[in-house]
Amino acid sequence: MEDKDVKTKKLNKINEIRKIKSKKIIIISIISVIIIAFIALICVYALDATRNTFGGKISSIFEQDKDITEEKAVTKALDRFTEMGEENLITNDLEVLKINRKGEYYYYISSPQNSLEIRISDGKIVRENSVLVEE
Prior knowledge:
By secondary structure, this protein is α+β, with helices and mostly antiparallel strands. The protein contains three helices and four strands. The protein has a four-stranded antiparallel beta sheet, with helices on one face. Strand 2 (104-110) and strand 3 form a beta hairpin.
């Protein structure tokens, strides 16, 4: 009788140890999957940010507050106007308007000879005109 009790206790301990080991394996597997998913997300973000792999859509999700300031837009416009052939421009020569088109905001910046639009959300020049639009 005692042999059966000893065997039963040993079997119970073995079963408890197996349960604990299986729980550890499950926990380690879950943690591994989470770490792999996190690393994959970082890689996708890095590819999109550096090589524009997904058209900038992934990196723009994480960079919501990257709106360009008016000062940076004016500096960018001055550089572009110089590339377009306008010489000796200063900030006072430019007219800056903030416009809304289809739910997106732009800086409409005009000089004496040219105009351009810079998207506020990412600072990209989206339109260039060498003929000024009159009201």
